[in-house]
From TrEMBL:
It comes from the Bacteria. Belongs to the sigma-54 factor family. Residues 103-298 form the RNA polymerase sigma factor 54 core-binding domain. It holds the Pfam family Sigma54_CBD. This is RNA polymerase sigma-54 factor. Gene3D superfamilies: Homeodomain-like, RNA polymerase sigma-54 factor, core-binding domain. Residues 320-474 form the RNA polymerase sigma factor 54 DNA-binding domain. The keyword Transport does not apply. Residues 40-63 are annotated as: Disordered. One of its GO terms (cellular component) is DNA-directed RNA polymerase complex. GO terms for molecular function: DNA binding; DNA-binding transcription activator activity; nucleotidyltransferase activity; sigma factor activity.
């Protein structure tokens, strides 16, 4: 076998990110609160980085003013302050104001139930068993594990030995506590627990009958079969269904520590941008609560070079000073790049959606995708995506996530936005005959008559996106 050595050339194109670019990409994804925490952390960890103490910062420290107070001080009088800087609205301009709550530590479901158990007069192993059961509930307040398994866990973890009758007694006590429905094994059980606490009336009796014996028909929204099987008139069935819909399917989800929608809505949102109108002009501002960053003077060692004759200790110290100085300089540069990118991206969005920002009318939103903003700014699509992720803008009509302004064209040659079509879709559903709701095919034909020439599968996608159930399930509203 012959062996030979060959020398060949190969051309490759590689792109590597510098440390500044890597840090810039990471900072770009952060929201206002996150970037403030990141700056504080960097100031604590890097001695070469300092917050510049200019006249404005010293004045704020001396007077004890917050960043928000300084922002409001820019206006001549209290009457000149836009309402959205003092209040917050969520959604369209015709909705009422609400006070945004911060996420605060509140009472957990476990603590709430434990307090009720202690006040019930229980003690000893009986109380310990009931408390252990309360701790075994999931975030919705359900006991999804089998009672014998919970009994085994109780014995292993606490050493308390109880009979199954004692376990059932403790569970019955737990199921009588507030909130109603807690301790249920499933949704059907949860609804029944709540119905049993209501005053005995006709609609309560009918609702109990439906959930007890015809839950599958109810869950499938098969109203005609349900009316026949339960021998109910149309009015009585409607009253029973309306009552069931007032019940809470997740009684434990409103407490701290759950992943409920209520807890998510309670999270405080800090706008990254403010857009104001001055006649036909749009004014963009970015609240900057970050301190002015600079490099600490003692780390200015550009004129000192490491030489072979320099003692090892001095060389190591100088290398440390330069590394910290370079790290601080990179961080300052990345912060500046982040701010410039956010400003350019928001400016492009504001220009593209000018009609919306002037009117706060969602129907004025134009079709816009990431590619449009990337073309307007010169950034890559991935940069635009990071710059808009988790960012919010406050207008006179409310606080909106930047992702809200991105909506696709149903067809490449269409000027209608997906939001406009969903609004037309909602209007058709609101006006339909609830005894014979429009199918997706009928909705497609109705939209085409209004000038929206889209496919049936697109209509189905927008219907689901708008939270509109299929025709079979919409009969519930017309009973």
């Amino acid at each position: 076998m012959e062996e030979s050595l060959k020398l060949s050339q190969k051309q490759q194109l590689r792109q590597t990110l510098s440390p500044v670019q890597v840090q810039y990409v990471r900072l770009l994804e952060m929201g206002t609160a996150e970037i403030e925490d990141e700056v504080k952390r960097e100031l604590d960890e890097n001695p070469a980085l300092e917050a510049s103490s200019d006249d404005q910062i010293r004045q704020a420290d001396a007077q004890g003013e917050t960043a928000e107070q300084m922002m409001l001080a820019d206006y001549r009088s209290e009457d000149d302050v836009p309402s959205y800087r003092l209040e917050a609205k969520n959604g369209s301009s015709d909705r009422t104001f609400f006070d945004p709550d911060t996420r605060q530590e509140g009472e957990t479901l476990m603590a709430y139930l434990t307090e009720q158990l202690r006040q019930s007069g229980m003690d000893g192993s009986e109380l310990e068993t009931a408390v252990f059961l309360a701790g075994s509930l999931d975030g919705n307040g359900y006991l999804t594990r089998a009672l014998p398994l919970v009994r085994e866990d109780l014995e292993v973890q606490t050493g308390v030995e109880v009979t199954m009758d004692e376990m059932r007694s403790a569970l019955d006590t737990l199921r009588r506590l507030d909130p109603a429905g807690v301790g249920a094994s499933d949704l059907r059980d949860c609804l029944l627990l709540q119905l049993r606490r209501l005053d005995p009336q006709q609609d309560v009796a009918d609702a109990t009958e439906i959930i007890t014996h015809y839950f599958d028909l109810f869950a499938g929204m098969k109203m005609d079969r349900l009316m026949t099987a339960a021998s109910l008139s149309e009015s009585r069935l409607k009253a029973a269904i309306d009552l069931i819909r007032t019940l809470n399917p997740k009684p434990g989800a409103t407490f701290e520590g759950s992943d409920s929608e209520a807890e998510i809505r309670a999270a405080h949102i800090t706008p990254d941008f403010y857009v104001e109108t001055d006649g036909d002009r749009l004014l963009l501002s970015m609240p900057d609560n970050l301190p002015h960053l600079a490099i600490e003077q003692s780390f200015d060692v550009d004129n000192i070079e490491i030489s072979p004759r320099m003692p090892r200790r001095d060389a190591d110290a100088l290398a440390f000073l330069k590394s910290r100085r370079d790290s601080a300089a990179d961080f300052i540069k990345a912060i500046g790049m982040r701010r410039e990118t956010l400003w350019r991206v928001m400016t492009a969005i504001m220009r593209h959606q000018r009609d919306f920002f002037l009117t706060d009318d969602e129907l004025k939103l134009r079709p816009m995708i990431l590619k449009d903003i990337a073309a307007a700014t010169g950034y890559d699509i991935s940069v635009v995506s990071r710059a808009t992720q988790g960012k919010y803008v406050a207008t006179a009509g409310g606080v909106y996530p930047l992702k809200f302004f991105f909506n696709e064209r149903p067809k490449s040659d269409s000027d209608a936005s997906s939001l406009e079509i969903m609004a037309a879709l909602r209007h058709l559903v609101d006006q339909e005959n609830k005894r014979s709701p429009l199918s997706d095919e009928a909705l497609t034909a109705a939209l085409k008559a209004q000038g929206y020439d889209i496919a049936r599968r697109t209509v189905a996608k927008y219907r689901e996106k708008a939270g509109i159930p299929v025709a079979r399930l919409r009969t519930l509203h017309g009973i």
